[in-house]
Specification:
With 307 residues, the chain is of the alpha/beta class. It has 3 domains: 7-86, Arc Repressor Mutant, subunit A (Orthogonal Bundle), CATH 1.10.10.10; 94-161 and 271-306, Periplasmic binding protein-like II (D-Maltodextrin-Binding Protein, domain 2, 3-Layer(aba) Sandwich), CATH 3.40.190.10; 165-262, 3-Layer(aba) Sandwich (D-Maltodextrin-Binding Protein, domain 2). Helix content is 45%, strand content 20%. It contains 12 helices and 13 strands. The chain has helices at 7-19, 22-29, 33-47, 63-86, 103-120, 134-139, 171-176, 181-187, 207-213, 230-238, 248-256, 284-299; strands at 52-55, 58-61, 95-102, 124-131, 144-147, 156-163, 165-169, 192-193, 226-227, 244-247, 261-262, 271-277, 305-306. It is globular, with a radius of gyration of 22 Å. Mean pLDDT is 83; it is low at 89-93, 197-201 and 303-307.
C-alpha cells in the first residue's frame, strides 16, 4: 500500500526549490506566497525533515532536500505525462524541449524569435527556464542551455555567437550633448549593471575598463543608477535615465525601433555565447532541430556576430 503524500505540498516545495523563491513559485502555481509557505511547512511536518534554511530574505535547500529535489521534479513530470495520456491528448506524438537561458537573453533575444520556431516545429513544446546565476543555470536539468561562459559540466558545448558591448542611450540624451560621442561619455549619467560573481570572464567590460580603453577620464565612475539585471537597465536607458554599456543580443530591438542609439565604438573584446546539451539524450532530434534553427537566426542577424 502506497503512503499517502500531500501532492500539493510537494508541488509547492519543488517549485520553490527550482525557482529559489517562494514568490516565483507562487506566481507559477497561481497561489499566494503565504499559501506556498504553508504548504512547505506542512510537508516538513509530514516528513519530519527540514527542507529549507531561511536566511533573512533568502532561502537555501538543506542537504537532504537538495539530494532529492531532482527526483521529485522527475516524478511530477511523469504525473503530468500520465494525466495528459488519460486526457486523450497527443502528448506521445509531441516532444517537449527544455531550454535554459538567462532572464535577459530569454526576454530580449529568444522571445522575439520563438514564434518562428513554433511555426517550423509545431510538434515540439518548448519549456523555457530562466536563471540569474551560474549556479542556478547548472543545477537545472535541461536539454539545451544558452550560456556566456565555458561550463565545466560533462556536456557537448558548441559556439553560438559573439556579443558586442557598445555604449547606447536614448536619442534625447544624445541630443542633450550635441550628439557628440566624447561629450556624452564624459558628461552623461552612467548606468551600471551589477553582474553576479560567477567566475565569468574578467575581461567583460565595466565603465572603468571601457572609458580607459578610449582615453576618457571621469571622476564619477561609481555614480549613477545600478541594476541587477540587464533588462531593467535597458528600459532605464530607453527612458532617458542615462547611458548603458549595451549588449548586442539584448539591445537589437531597441536600436531598430529608435528607442536607443549607439554612442561610440564597441569594446574591442567580444563576449562569446555557447550552446550546451547532453552528450546522450532521448531527445536528440529535437535538440538538433532547435540548434539548427537558432544558428540560422544568428547568421541572418546583422547585429550579432556568429563565431
Amino acid at each position: 500500500m502506497r503512503k499517502r503524500v500531500p501532492l500539493n505540498a510537494i508541488r509547492a516545495f519543488e517549485a520553490t526549490a527550482r525557482n529559489q523563491s517562494v514568490a516565483k513559485a507562487a506566481d507559477e502555481l497561481c497561489v499566494t506566497p503565504t499559501a506556498v509557505s504553508h504548504q512547505i511547512r506542512q510537508l516538513e511536518e509530514f516528513l519530519q525533515v527540514r527542507l529549507f534554511i531561511r536566511k533573512n530574505s533568502r532561502i537555501e535547500l538543506t542537504t537532504e532536500a537538495r539530494n532529492n529535489v531532482h527526483q521529485i521534479g522527475r516524478a511530477l513530470d511523469l504525473i503530468n505525462e500520465a494525466i495528459a495520456a488519460l486526457e486523450g491528448s497527443d502528448y506521445d506524438e509531441r516532444r517537449r524541449l527544455n531550454v535554459a537561458a538567462s532572464t535577459s537573453v530569454a526576454s530580449f533575444f529568444l522571445m522575439p524569435r520563438l514564434y518562428d520556431f513554433t511555426l517550423r516545429a509545431p510538434d515540439i513544446d518548448l519549456n523555457i527556464r530562466t536563471f540569474l546565476s551560474r549556479k542556478e543555470a547548472e543545477e537545472q536539468e535541461m536539454d539545451i542551455r544558452i550560456l556566456n561562459w565555458q561550463s565545466q559540466m560533462e556536456c557537448q558545448v558548441e559556439p553560438l555567437v559573439e556579443e558586442e558591448v557598445v555604449p547606447v542611450c536614448a536619442p534625447a540624451v544624445a541630443a542633450r550633448f550635441g550628439n557628440d560621442p566624447r561629450e556624452i561619455l564624459k558628461n552623461a549619467p552612467l548606468l551600471h549593471v551589477d553582474r553576479a560573481n560567477d567566475g565569468l570572464d574578467s575581461t567583460y567590460p565595466d565603465w572603468a575598463r571601457y572609458l580607459a580603453e578610449y582615453g576618457i577620464s571621469r571622476s564619477d565612475l561609481s555614480h549613477g543608477a545600478r541594476f541587477n539585471q540587464a533588462g531593467t537597465s535597458i528600459e532605464a536607458a530607453c527612458a532617458g535615465v542615462g547611458v548603458i554599456l549595451g549588449r548586442s543580443l539584448l539591445i537589437e530591438d531597441a536600436l531598430q525601433k529608435g528607442r536607443l542609439v549607439r554612442v561610440s565604438e564597441p569594446y574591442p573584446i567580444r563576449s562569446p555565447y555557447f550552446l550546451q546539451s547532453p552528450w546522450k539524450s532521448t531527445n536528440k532530434e529535437s535538440i538538433q532541430r532547435f540548434k539548427d534553427w537558432i544558428l540560422e537566426k544568428v547568421r541572418s542577424n546583422g547585429l550579432v556576430h556568429a563565431i
